[in-house]
Write a structure and sequence with these properties.
- Helix 5 packs across helix 6 and helix 7 crosses helix 9.
- By secondary structure, this protein is an alpha+beta fold.
- It has two domains: about 290 residues, L-amino peptidase D-ALA esterase/amidase, CATH 3.60.70.12; about 140 residues, Roll (Ubiquitin-like (UB roll)).
């Protein structure tokens, strides 16, 4: 698939990302270079530590010049990896401060027992020794095969090297992004400057993810950086809401991982920072870009499916319906084949209306004002006789039944790299967008032999 890395300037009133977020009036978001290192005072690097049998890069570090404000949104999976527990513990011990994030690929360090936790703790201690900070100021993340122990000695021996070669330029950021890939076919980075009359802030980020992607947080690792002065609890609240509206609205295969983590480091070095609304828009733009890059790189994917639900009674209702449709294997295979099978879409909408989707996963925080993080959304009201379905500009279902349409035009709407599916519930004015990709034979080929 074509995976564009460049993004146009977004000004007040323009959409900030593919999820439809709006840039506040008088605000401007401008693309920047350097990923996580677009933020001054941040260094990053990556190398091959021998954790992957292939010998490819597998160890990365993102670090600040001193302890800074930090927060994380992590997996809701009850079978959480050792790094998830350790990062949670360290953030609690420091009151939301961190100096560095260590990331490894090749092993998820999940379901590895006491030894897995011991390795995670030892790796944090090794980073602390290399940087001259407290062990609790190091956050740890891992990705790879579940149940496979991390080779302890190669990991610990390589930490001084990755810390020593970390740099504050685009090359360092790219090395870090490259070192955390698993089935990813490309590095994933983004950065913007967010400006308004009050000031300017920089936001950068990197991520990895291609499979095991589900919107109960989404299965991926990401590190975000900013020079804005954001502190706990505001940092935690903003991060949770933005993750819910971006990474929380993507899906590749509906499979949630044990290791999901989005970490934000805020250095507070901006001379004059913009309003909170502008800052949130910038953070949402970066997270939205990274989330979209994950879907575009979905395992075996040939198309991105944008599921737009409009006409819902609440944003939460729209999100639940969009999630149900984006998670339908029947819809995703129809998109792979270019088949405008609106019956499958309507069936998925009806399943959401029966409460099936709302019970599958926790709701992303921030979908609706007043929602609490982790709330299970209510069952959305769906009236079949009011539902319209459209592929691109072609209406294929009207009032819950077949609509007359040109088959050639419908096929054309499903032919390109981006397919837009709009579902109008016909009830009110709330809306939400989820991103997913088609389900192809390529996905089966990748995952049938993942560990062999």
């Amino acid at each position: 698939m074509t995976r564009p890395q460049a993004h146009a300037v977004a000004r007040g009133g323009d959409p900030a990302n593919a999820f439809g977020a709006q840039v506040p009036a008088e605000a401007t978001l401008t693309p920047a270079e350097g990923g996580v290192c677009a933020t001054r005072g941040i260094v990053a690097g990556g190398l091959a530590a021998g954790l992957k049998p292939s010998g490819k890069p597998d160890l990365a570090l993102v670090a600040a010049s001193q302890p800074v404000a930090a927060g994380a949104v992590q997996t809701t999976n009850a079978v959480a990896a050792a790094p998830v527990h350790l990062t949670r513990r360290h953030l609690a011990a420091t009151g939301g401060r961190a100096r560095a994030v260590l990331l490894n690929a090749g092993s998820a360090n999940a379901c590895t027992g006491p030894e897995g936790m011991a390795v995670a703790e030892a790796s944090a201690g090794a980073v602390a020794a290399a940087l001259g900070c407290a062990t609790e100021e190091v956050l740890v993340t891992s990705t790879g095969v579940i149940g496979q122990p991390i080779p302890r000695e190669p990991l610990l021996a390589s930490i001084p090297d990755v810390a020593g070669q970390a740099t504050g330029d685009a090359a360092g950021a790219t090395r870090a992004a490259d070192a955390i890939r698993t089935t990813d076919t490309t590095v994933k980075q983004a950065a913007v400057t967010a400006a308004d009359p009050a000031g300017v802030a920089t936001i950068g980020g990197l991520t990895k993810g291609s499979g095991m992607i589900d919107p109960a947080m989404a299965t991926m690792l990401a590190v975000l950086t900013t020079d804005a002065d954001l502190r706990h609890p505001a940092l935690a609240s903003v991060l949770s809401e933005v993750v819910g509206r971006t990474f929380g609205r993507i899906s590749v295969d509906g499979c949630q991982s044990t290791n999901d983590a989005v970490v934000l480091l805020a250095t507070g070095q901006a001379a004059h920072q913009p309003s909170l609304g502008t800052l949130v828009a910038g953070l949402e733009h970066v997270c939205g870009s990274l989330a979209e890059q994950i879907v575009r790189d979905g395992e075996g994917a040939s198309r991105v499916l944008h599921v737009h639900v409009v006409g819902a009674e609440t944003t939460s209702d729209a999100e639940v319906v969009a999630r149900a449709v984006a998670g339908s294997d029947l819809v995703k295979t129809a998109v792979a084949g270019g088949d405008p099978n609106w019956g499958r879409v309507l069936a998925a909408v009806g399943a959401a209306g029966a409460g099936a989707a709302g019970l599958r996963a926790q709701a992303p925080a921030g979908t609706t004002p007043g929602d609490r993080a982790g709330d299970v959304p209510r069952t959305p009201r769906v009236v079949a006789e009011r539902v319209d379905v459209r592929f691109g500009q072609v209406t294929v279902c009207r009032f819950g039944g077949a609509a007359a349409f040109d088959a050639g035009q419908a096929a054309a709407a499903l032919r390109g790299p981006d397919v837009h599916l709009t579902i109008d519930l016909g009830l009110d004015h709330a809306r939400a967008t989820n991103l997913t990709c088609d389900l192809t034979h390529g996905y089966i080929s990748i995952n049938a032999e993942y560990t062999t």
